[in-house]
Every structure is written in structure tokens, then in C-alpha cells.
Amino acid sequence: MIIVCLLLTLLVFATQHGVRSEDAGRVCNGKPQSLCQGESDHKTASTVSYSELRNLLAEGKVRLFDVRNPDEFAEGHIPTAVNVPLGELREAFGLTPGQFEARYGTQLPESDAADVLLYCQRGRRSAEGLQILRALGYHRVRHYAGGYSEWSDRVKSKKQ
């Protein structure tokens, strides 16, 4: 009886907090897996590692969007990235293709595009951006959970 109650409690929690049934049993840092998106020790199909990102960039197979604020972007960003701040993301990806291109200087990705990748400083905002874009129908969007912080650290360490 206790096990049944625990399972029902877990199911109710998962339903209320948007945890998919396949994620419900997995945890990271004591939280359901879906609540850990953006944490650097957590790897899912939605996340891209540093080495994966470098390969995608080298092959020209990524549309990279930096969801940090413009001042953060101006201080440094990953090459080829386009700045679309998190606060503008929902509106930006709801623009017409012409409006998007005029505002951001690049084409609006198709909703089924597999090459759309978000990043921020450490992965929190890009994880939130994943949810925003998925709600708009971009179900194949991914993010670089290490963010610009990891990118810049790795690039600096390779130069030394």
C-alpha cells in the first residue's frame, strides 16, 4: 500500500510539474530530471556538449542563438551566434520571416529545423529558452548547457 501511495504521489508530482513519464524516475541533484535542464552535469538529447558544438560549428551545421542580454553578448560570444535575448525570444520566433531577418540579420529557422541551438552564460536561460521555443513548435531545438562560460574557459585553455 505504501509503495502504491508513493507511486501515485510521484505521478501527481510529475504531471503537475511537466515531467514526462520516461523522466519521472530519474533525478539529478535530488530533483526530477526535467527540472535539471541547464545543469552542466546533466546530459539529454536536448543538450550539446562543448566538443559536439565545436564539430557542429566546424561543419557549418548549426544556427546558434545567444539568449543573453545585448551587453553580455557585446563582451564576447561564440562565433556565428546571433543575439536574441531571452526576454525577446517568444516574440522574435513569432515574427514573420521578413521581420525576423530585418531585426536579427538572419533567417527565421523553420519550426522543424534540427540545427537550432541556444546558449547563454551557464545554461539556465537557454534551458528556459528551450521550453519557450518548444511551446512555439520548435521541438528539435537544443542548447549548449555549458554556455559561454565553459566555451570561453575552454578556448582560453587551448591558447595557453
What is this structure's SSE topology?
Elements: H1 2-16, E1 27-28, E2 31-32, E3 47-48, H2 50-59, E4 63-66, H3 70-75, E5 82-83, H4 89-92, H5 97-104, E6 116-119, H6 124-135, E7 142-144, H7 147-159
Parallel strand pairs: 3-7, 4-5, 4-6, 6-7
Antiparallel strand pairs: 1-2
Write up what this structure looks like.
The chain is an alpha/beta fold. It folds into two domains: 2-36, no CATH class; 47-159, Rhodanese-like domain (Oxidized Rhodanese, domain 1, 3-Layer(aba) Sandwich), CATH 3.40.250. The protein contains seven helices and seven strands; from the N terminus they run αβββαβαβααβαβα. The strands form two sheets. It has a five-stranded parallel β-sheet with strand order 3-7-6-4-5. The protein has a two-stranded antiparallel sheet with strand order 1-2. β1 and β2 form a beta hairpin. The radius of gyration is 17 Å and the shape is globular. InterPro entries: Rhodanese-like_dom, Rhodanese-like_dom_sf. Residues 1-21 form the signal peptide.
